[in-house]
Design goal:
Length: 303
Amino acid sequence: MITCSAPGKVYLFGEHAVVYGEPAICCAVDIRTRVSVAPADSITISSSLGTTDIDFKTHPYVSAVVERFQDISSLEGVSISIESEIPVGSGLGSSAAVTIATIKALDALLGTGLELDDIARMGHEVEQRIQGAASQTDTYVCTMGGVVMIPQRKGLDLLDCAIVIGNTNIFSSTKELVANVAELNDKFPDVIGPVLSSIGMMSATGEVLVNAKDYVSVGKLMNINQGLLDAIGVGCSELSSFTYAARNSGAYGAKITGAGGGGCMVAIAPHECVSEVAAAIASAGGEVVVTKATDIGVRVESQ
Ligand SMILES: Nc1ncnc2c1ncn2[C@@H]1O[C@H](COP(=O)(O)OP(=O)(O)OP(=O)(O)O)[C@@H](O)[C@H]1O
Ligand SMILES: C[C@@](O)(CCO)CC(=O)[O-]
Ligand SMILES: [Mg+2]
């Protein structure tokens, strides 16, 4: 049996706008999905969502990965078992992590010799197929780890402040949220276009600040980015209430992370404020995860 893992991620800036070619800055975080594979006579995929064969309703991302390997190798049967610390459909890159960890595990099992760039590319193709429109961000960051600016694929300094996540526990489908933004953009292109460009400016301005470890300024920009995410309709009252709770208890800044519409918000905070920020989000009704940036991307855990 071979087990591989891949990390989740939070966006400092740029989700949604990155689908339209704007830059984004995204950070791998220290919560992981583990995928174990073993030779078998038929295909079985087991996760908290159920046990299936190739099944695009229950396991669309993993099924698409299996089909890709059927194209490039002699794969006929395999048993795939998924365990995850990343909540499903929550904005923390659960789809990218399960996709990338499965690609790496099947690559190791079948000896297809994929390089990290090949894994990231295949992961992006899978997200595009299932999501409709998808940027390369989640799959690239989750493959490589670290803090990455997209589309340049430029590595920035690892954050050394605390990352506090508040989960609304409202399931949100990235596919649907991306489609909602596209609909709004089709209806009001002259209004939404400039908002998406302004979101792109966050990363252009934020890059230098992240490398300078000027987290006070990074936080201010995250707060501006949050306002623009609200403007394109991906907020909800719980996300707003958690972001204000975090800001009012000492966080540098707070915003939605990922597709929004539910899922999670992220705050960056000085290490000494973590318990106040976590308590404030929890008393506003959020499930809290305190984590940190990681430079460990996809990797083989055991074989
Ligand atoms: N542990 C898991 N086991 C099996 N499938 C998973 C797992 N985690 C995620 N998935 C798949 O990914 C889908 C959720 O992906 P989606 O892109 O909508 O949310 P996300 O990746 O958590 O958030 P975001 O894309 O905003 O970061 C699930 O419906 C499921 O198909
Ligand atoms: C909403 C989005 O920008 C981020 C999802 O984590 C979609 C994508 O980049 O594919
Ligand atoms: Mg996703």
